[in-house]
Amino acid sequence: MSEPSRVWMDNAYWENYTQDKVKCILSITDADGVSINQQLTLSKLTPDGEDNIDFLELIDQVGIEKITQNTTERVERKAEERKRHEQEKIERERASSLHKLFEAKIQAFEIDAIKNSTNRGLKSKLRKAQNLIEVNVYSMMIVMEDIKNAEAGTD
Fold this sequence. Notes:
single chain, alpha+beta, 4 strands, rod-shaped
Protein backbone atom coordinates (compact mmCIF):
# COMPACT_ATOMS: atom_id res chain seq x y z
CA MET A 1 0.00 0.00 0.00
CA SER A 2 1.39 3.40 -0.98
CA GLU A 3 1.47 6.48 1.20
CA PRO A 4 -1.15 9.16 0.70
CA SER A 5 -0.09 12.00 -1.57
CA ARG A 6 -0.22 15.57 -0.31
CA VAL A 7 -0.64 18.44 -2.76
CA TRP A 8 -0.97 22.08 -1.74
CA MET A 9 -3.38 24.00 -3.95
CA ASP A 10 -1.80 27.04 -5.59
CA ASN A 11 -4.47 29.46 -4.32
CA ALA A 12 -2.89 30.04 -0.89
CA TYR A 13 -2.73 33.63 0.40
CA TRP A 14 -1.10 35.45 3.29
CA GLU A 15 -3.41 36.07 6.21
CA ASN A 16 -1.25 38.93 7.53
CA TYR A 17 1.31 41.39 6.26
CA THR A 18 4.17 39.84 8.18
CA GLN A 19 3.78 36.75 5.98
CA ASP A 20 4.02 34.33 8.87
CA LYS A 21 0.44 33.04 8.56
CA VAL A 22 -1.13 31.64 5.43
CA LYS A 23 -4.58 30.32 4.42
CA CYS A 24 -4.33 27.34 2.13
CA ILE A 25 -5.93 24.12 0.93
CA LEU A 26 -4.24 20.76 1.24
CA SER A 27 -5.46 17.95 -1.03
CA ILE A 28 -4.75 14.48 0.32
CA THR A 29 -5.29 11.42 -1.89
CA ASP A 30 -5.13 7.98 -0.29
CA ALA A 31 -3.95 4.72 -1.86
CA ASP A 32 -7.48 3.98 -3.15
CA GLY A 33 -7.59 7.28 -5.00
CA VAL A 34 -10.00 8.91 -2.57
CA SER A 35 -9.21 12.59 -2.27
CA ILE A 36 -10.12 15.05 0.45
CA ASN A 37 -9.40 18.76 0.68
CA GLN A 38 -8.65 20.54 3.93
CA GLN A 39 -8.70 24.28 4.36
CA LEU A 40 -5.95 25.26 6.77
CA THR A 41 -4.42 28.28 8.40
CA LEU A 42 -0.73 27.64 8.87
CA SER A 43 1.69 29.58 10.99
CA LYS A 44 5.38 29.78 10.19
CA LEU A 45 6.22 28.51 13.66
CA THR A 46 4.61 25.88 15.85
CA PRO A 47 3.41 26.85 19.35
CA ASP A 48 6.78 25.54 20.59
CA GLY A 49 8.62 28.06 18.40
CA GLU A 50 9.85 25.40 15.96
CA ASP A 51 9.56 25.66 12.16
CA ASN A 52 6.17 24.37 11.00
CA ILE A 53 6.88 21.53 8.54
CA ASP A 54 3.54 22.01 6.75
CA PHE A 55 4.28 25.73 6.29
CA LEU A 56 7.71 24.95 4.84
CA GLU A 57 6.25 22.28 2.54
CA LEU A 58 3.62 24.74 1.29
CA ILE A 59 6.27 27.39 0.61
CA ASP A 60 8.36 24.82 -1.22
CA GLN A 61 5.46 23.60 -3.42
CA VAL A 62 3.63 26.88 -4.09
CA GLY A 63 6.30 29.51 -3.57
CA ILE A 64 6.35 32.86 -1.78
CA GLU A 65 5.86 34.81 -5.03
CA LYS A 66 2.68 32.91 -5.93
CA ILE A 67 1.25 33.32 -2.42
CA THR A 68 2.03 37.05 -2.50
CA GLN A 69 0.45 37.37 -5.95
CA ASN A 70 -2.66 35.52 -4.73
CA THR A 71 -2.83 37.84 -1.72
CA THR A 72 -2.62 40.96 -3.87
CA GLU A 73 -5.30 39.66 -6.24
CA ARG A 74 -7.53 38.69 -3.30
CA VAL A 75 -7.19 42.12 -1.66
CA GLU A 76 -8.12 43.81 -4.95
CA ARG A 77 -11.04 41.42 -5.54
CA LYS A 78 -12.37 41.93 -2.00
CA ALA A 79 -12.10 45.72 -2.39
CA GLU A 80 -14.08 45.51 -5.65
CA GLU A 81 -16.68 43.29 -3.97
CA ARG A 82 -17.05 45.76 -1.09
CA LYS A 83 -17.40 48.61 -3.57
CA ARG A 84 -20.00 46.68 -5.58
CA HIS A 85 -21.94 45.71 -2.44
CA GLU A 86 -21.90 49.33 -1.24
CA GLN A 87 -23.22 50.52 -4.62
CA GLU A 88 -25.94 47.84 -4.56
CA LYS A 89 -26.89 48.93 -1.03
CA ILE A 90 -27.14 52.56 -2.14
CA GLU A 91 -29.31 51.55 -5.10
CA ARG A 92 -31.58 49.41 -2.87
CA GLU A 93 -31.96 52.31 -0.42
CA ARG A 94 -32.74 54.70 -3.27
CA ALA A 95 -35.34 52.31 -4.71
CA SER A 96 -36.88 51.91 -1.27
CA SER A 97 -36.98 55.68 -0.82
CA LEU A 98 -38.65 56.15 -4.20
CA HIS A 99 -41.17 53.44 -3.35
CA LYS A 100 -42.00 55.16 -0.04
CA LEU A 101 -42.38 58.49 -1.86
CA PHE A 102 -44.72 56.90 -4.42
CA GLU A 103 -46.79 55.27 -1.65
CA ALA A 104 -47.00 58.58 0.24
CA LYS A 105 -48.29 60.35 -2.88
CA ILE A 106 -50.91 57.65 -3.41
CA GLN A 107 -52.03 57.94 0.21
CA ALA A 108 -52.15 61.73 -0.05
CA PHE A 109 -54.39 61.61 -3.12
CA GLU A 110 -56.76 59.25 -1.27
CA ILE A 111 -57.56 62.04 1.21
CA ASP A 112 -60.93 63.54 0.22
CA ALA A 113 -59.77 67.15 0.62
CA ILE A 114 -56.89 66.51 -1.80
CA LYS A 115 -58.85 64.29 -4.17
CA ASN A 116 -61.62 66.86 -4.50
CA SER A 117 -59.39 69.95 -4.53
CA THR A 118 -59.66 72.27 -7.52
CA ASN A 119 -56.27 73.84 -6.85
CA ARG A 120 -54.45 72.37 -9.86
CA GLY A 121 -51.21 74.18 -9.02
CA LEU A 122 -50.82 72.62 -5.58
CA LYS A 123 -51.98 69.21 -6.81
CA SER A 124 -49.38 69.40 -9.57
CA LYS A 125 -46.67 70.31 -7.05
CA LEU A 126 -47.79 67.39 -4.89
CA ARG A 127 -47.49 65.01 -7.85
CA LYS A 128 -44.00 66.35 -8.61
CA ALA A 129 -42.80 66.28 -4.99
CA GLN A 130 -39.23 64.97 -4.71
CA ASN A 131 -39.32 63.83 -1.09
CA LEU A 132 -41.66 62.99 1.77
CA ILE A 133 -41.37 66.45 3.31
CA GLU A 134 -42.63 68.07 0.10
CA VAL A 135 -45.49 65.55 -0.04
CA ASN A 136 -46.43 66.46 3.52
CA VAL A 137 -46.14 70.22 2.94
CA TYR A 138 -48.23 70.28 -0.25
CA SER A 139 -50.76 67.88 1.26
CA MET A 140 -51.07 70.11 4.31
CA MET A 141 -51.45 73.20 2.14
CA ILE A 142 -54.29 71.61 0.19
CA VAL A 143 -56.01 70.41 3.36
CA MET A 144 -55.59 73.81 5.00
CA GLU A 145 -57.07 75.45 1.90
CA ASP A 146 -60.02 73.03 2.12
CA ILE A 147 -60.54 73.89 5.79
CA LYS A 148 -60.33 77.64 5.00
CA ASN A 149 -62.84 77.26 2.17
CA ALA A 150 -65.17 75.23 4.39
CA GLU A 151 -65.02 77.88 7.12
CA ALA A 152 -65.62 80.66 4.61
CA GLY A 153 -68.64 78.83 3.27
CA THR A 154 -70.22 78.38 6.71
CA ASP A 155 -69.82 82.02 7.88
